[in-house]
Amino acid sequence: MGTPAIQQKAPGVYLHQMHVRTNYLRSSIPTNAVLVAPNDPGRVLLTIINLDTTNSIYIGFDDQITATRGIQVGPAGGGVNFSIRNDGELTAYAVFGVAVGGTVNVYIVETILDIAVDARAVFFGFPPSDLVTP
Question: Does a structural domain hold residue 132?
Answer without folding.
Answer: no
